[in-house]
């Protein structure tokens, strides 16, 4: 996924499905480096991770 699309998703009020390694995640924030983002798993755990944005995939 690219930086512009992540910014669009973050500013959208719609529920947009995004996967990281085949798992559904929420994007919490885009980091200033423009290469990484903080995400958390959808569901009760909400464990946060920093991931490369190129590994995120819109479903």
TrEMBL record:
Keyword hit for Signal: no
Keyword presence, Secreted: no
Pfam families: SspH
Keywords: Sporulation
Superkingdom per UniProt: Bacteria
Expression induction: Expressed only in the forespore compartment of sporulating cells.
Subcellular location field: Spore core
InterPro entries named among the record's database cross-references: SASP_SspH
HAMAP family: SspH
Family (UniProt): Belongs to the SspH family.
The protein, known as: Small, acid-soluble spore protein H
Species annotation: Lederbergia ruris
Gene name in the database record: sspH1
